[in-house]
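Dissemination and training. As part of the outreach component of the grant, students in the summer workshop were shown how a complex can be specified as a set of sequence lines and then modelled as a single object. The example used during the hands-on session is reproduced here so that future cohorts can follow it. Participants entered these lines:
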Amino acid sequence: MADALRAYGLIVAMWVRSTMAYRASFAMTTLGNFAATAFDFVAILLMFSHVDALGGYSLPEIAFLYGTTSTAFGLADLVMGSMDRLGRRVRDGTLDTLLVRPVPVLAQVAADRFALRRLGRVTQGLLVLAYALWTLDVEWTAAKAAMVPLMLLCGGAIFASVFVAGGAFQFFAQDAAEVQSSFTYGGNTLLQYPPSIFAKDLVRGVTFVVPLAFVNWMPSLYVLGREDPLGLPDWFALLPPVVAAGCLGLAGLAWRVGLRSYRSTGS
Amino acid sequence: MRLYAVVAAGGFRRYATYRVATAAGVFTNTVFGFILAYTYIALWDERPQLGGYDQSEALTYVWLGQALLMTCAMMGGGFEDELIERIRTGDIAIDLYRPADLQLWWLAGDLGRAAFHLLGRGIVPMVFGALAFDLALPASPWTWAAFLLSVALGVVVSFAVRFLVSLSAFWLMDGAGVMQMCWLAGLFFSGMLLPLSLFPGLLGEVARALPWSSLLQVPADVFLGKHTGWDLLQVYAFQGGWALALLAAGRMLQTVATRRVVVQGG
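and obtained this result:
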């Protein structure tokens, strides 16, 4: 494990140095990454220039949902976002190079072409979260305050396991990298809005099948003192660490199965 | 002319080859369509008739956005990465030797790609959307035809912008940054985030006058029957005008850029 982390760090450092060779491009892409994610929030602001509440939630409340999921997703994207390049390596056979190196393949794939520009997304999420915490009308208790960093960590872990599971899936369907985006980017977009506006079946799906609801919806309902649209008990708000650990375990298993089934290209 | 038809057909076939990737893309477009549709329902529940659309028109707008996202390359994803790479590595010198015009060559290929994306990535999400929600689909075949023409003009405008931006690689070498700025503008000003009629005041007016509105806002309004008769011709003139102006600018920049190319060796 320590070896894997060290190798991950070394590969990351290499890519950061390589990125810095084109500084103007790095500045532009980081800014672009920041702006691209900020647009989602601009859309929400534009919506709120026409209405006072969306699905019964005020702007600060939606900003809270937005800030928590975007930061959590941004962290996962920064650390694991390169997983969607795996399909290409499987297709052209360059994964073989990674297999012969004495470093865990997962660490190599995750660090491959590490993109520091993704800090733009994390920064944007944190800014919106700060705005939400500043404007929210909530009676803060120690438990509620502790919930915020917990959400970012567990949410990041849940999204990271989606990235790893998506990577494992690409061993079987190399061209299907975009399916992963439905759950990563799509999940992030979904969680920016309150659960009350979506169909119940969709909310059930992201609670019990792909447990994205535990990234921010469940704990946020507790922090904001909101009713759960599915009528689930309160203690569901405490589940994110359990769910995150479970997801990481399952994703690790899926990764092993995927890697075992890898057959190189060629004769 | 025949040459460019062959290039266009090649562009179509090239993207049609990756069936799994297309299916994966359709899946993603459909998922995003569902998510956005619910946010629009919440918005139009609060404010019916917002921006001059009723709820079913607003939902149609969402699914049109998903259907045209790839066709009009609103977030990039066409030829530009390849062209930039060829400029950076110097392979562009070979392209310039060819007895074909650089801009028309890439335009033909991109039109072929767009035709495939309209069929392969556009129809299925639209069908899913129509099954799950009450959409305002045009009854008259003329509206469908008018819509297709508007989409075609939108694709040419989109190409012209991306071609211009790609040529910046002659000066910058690494085009990733500019390209990203370009697709950000496309995302924001095409109406992909929200219909441009919901943008407030001056921002709305500017957004509607910029070329990117040709990519989604204009075709969607044609689809919804907001432009008819004389008005429709004006809209076509708007799209066609931007297409011609941007293609001409691309041509000028191409002339300047090719003067910079120095081919090494004997």
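Chain A touches chain B through 41 residues (CB under 8 Å). Students were then asked to discuss how this feature might be tested experimentally.
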